[in-house]
Design goal:
Radius of gyration: 18 Å
Number of domains: 1
Structural class: mainly alpha
Largest sheet: none
Helix content: over 70%
Oligomer: single chain
Strand content: under 5%
Length: 188
């Protein structure tokens, strides 16, 4: 697996680990109905998020802002007590939930806005980058197939897959620099 995919997989695991489980056990019929309604709502929200991420087009200026926002957020979080750092975690559910969580967290919101992104666009860029990186990995395993068709089958923007492939060296360099900065921030 190449470096961008390693980074994206780590980011996906981080996002998943930060998100709290929304599964509920159905007790009586009203709880079961409520759980079913949440499931339907979650499915519709997931479809909306997938559509939004799939229709977003990555560019290097947007990715640069994303890395700047991540750097700003890490700097903002490093001096916070552990309990306050936990508030930087992803919210349950949708992109809107994640953006709302950022909005409620003043240091995180300011860090992202300082980079020129809204909390929502930050979340969308993160997911579009992960989605395109994972699709790029799958497409690389099927070199004889039409890459754009495969991307569309995976509900991924083909332009984002091309972007990740064409800018792989730049993205790897940004990831390496970010990792070095994060390591330097660790307490000794």
């Amino acid at each position: 697996m190449n470096r961008p995919l390693n980074y994206l997989a780590a980011a996906a695991m981080l996002l998943s680990a930060c998100a709290k489980s929304d599964s509920a056990e159905a007790g009586d019929s009203s709880e079961g109905t409520s759980a079913a309604a949440r499931s339907t709502s979650t499915s519709a929200s997931a479809d909306q998020d997938l559509s939004e991420v799939s229709n977003y087009t990555l560019t290097m200026p947007k990715v640069d802002k994303f890395y700047e926002a991540m750097r700003n957020a890490a700097l903002a979080a490093k001096d916070l007590p552990e309990d306050q750092r936990a508030s930087f975690d992803a919210a349950d559910g949708s992109l809107d939930d994640y953006a709302a969580n950022i909005e409620r967290n003043a240091p995180m919101r300011k860090a992202i806005e300082k980079a020129g992104l809204s909390p929502k666009e930050f979340a969308v860029i993160m997911m579009a980058t992960m989605q395109a990186g994972m699709a790029q990995g799958i497409i690389a395993m099927r070199p004889k197939d039409n890459a754009d068709s495969l991307a569309r089958e995976m509900k991924t923007n083909p332009a984002n897959v091309r972007f990740m492939r064409e800018h792989q060296a730049e993205i790897e360099a940004k990831q390496k620099a970010m990792a070095a900065e994060m390591k330097a921030m660790e307490p000794r």
